[in-house]
Input
Amino acid sequence: MIKMTKEQLINFETDIADCFNNAIIKAPVHLYDGNEEQMIDIFKNVKSEDWIFCTWRSHYQCLLKGVPPEQVKQDILDGKSITLCYPEYNIYSSAIVTGNIPIATGTALDIKRKGGTNHVWCFVGDMTSETGTFFENWKYAINHDLPITYVIEDNGKSVCTDTKSVWNTDELYFAKETRKIIYYQYQTKYPHAGGGKRIQF
Amino acid sequence: MKYFDELKRSMDWLNEQPNTLFLGQAVEYAGTGMTNTLKDVDRNKMLEMPVNEDMQMGLSLGMALNGTVPISLYPRWNFLLLAANQLINHLDKVKIMSDGGYTPKVIVRTSIGSQRPLHPQHQHIADFTSGFRAMCETVDIIRLEEPNQIFEAYQYAYNRTDNRSTILVEYGDYYNEK
Output
């Protein structure tokens, strides 16, 4: 299911960045950039009944799952960007590092126990993918063959910290793992939070 | 009825509800006092978990989002403390974050560790009820002081129409004393 083009995604985040840079949004925003093609590819396999578990950076997932852009924008303007939740679209977002992972795994477990046919997609960043929580849940999902895919989005940094540097590695642990994992790298023009301009509220 | 008997009666009743599932360590296997209260629960409704308290709480929430009412067992408050992230940041906040859109219901069983006849020392006997009540905005915490309140409390936790999750706090010593 694809509801947005690459250009529409970019334009949406540009609009949000402008709103933030003009002090219209009085809450954190975390913007995507540079990963539109990868996200569109992933969402070609996402069905409407599937579950999406996101982090604090979730605008693209909400848009690609079909939430109307005006609704996503209004919720962002209302300060909800980092925990966007849309039950009618099976979307849950968490602003806590690793927070969405066991919840996603639990939903996948419940789907399997009930013989469901929908799938769970759990998005994480590069630093999160290096945590014990990620490993434990991935291991559980592999061993129980749960209907879940973990998507590792590697932009090379955690806030401003270099993920690979602090773990003293040249490559993320799961970068080449394909079992229930999609891994991709991207570079973004936006900082960890905000639209790139220092704002005085 | 006595304290233990009321607990077992409550688990038997929860077992009869169509969408319940019992999960935790020592659910399918023996191991704690709580295990004995589950001896007549349908084996298909039991899910033995790896020891990973925060993951268990997250799994419970994730299953609840999909329509199950998990009964998530933590034999001691000291162990439940390790699930504080998923409990406080997620289970307690999901209803608020989603403007009431998500209303998962999880029933958490925990206990204040018994001190008689064996005293398990300082990492096994905590009662964190007050601290967790201070941190929770939606999750309700009920201490089970007397046998005659137990069955009603578990029925309330399952049937409550405000869709809040409930932590029920048992007293390990009362299994034999009340």
Q: What stands out?
A: Strands of chain B lie at 20-24, 46-48, 69-73, 107-112, 140-143, 166-171. Chain B touches chain A at residues 21, 50, 52, 54-68, 85-86, 89-90, 94, 97-99, 101-102 (CB under 8 Å). The first strand of chain B starts at residue 20 and ends at 24.
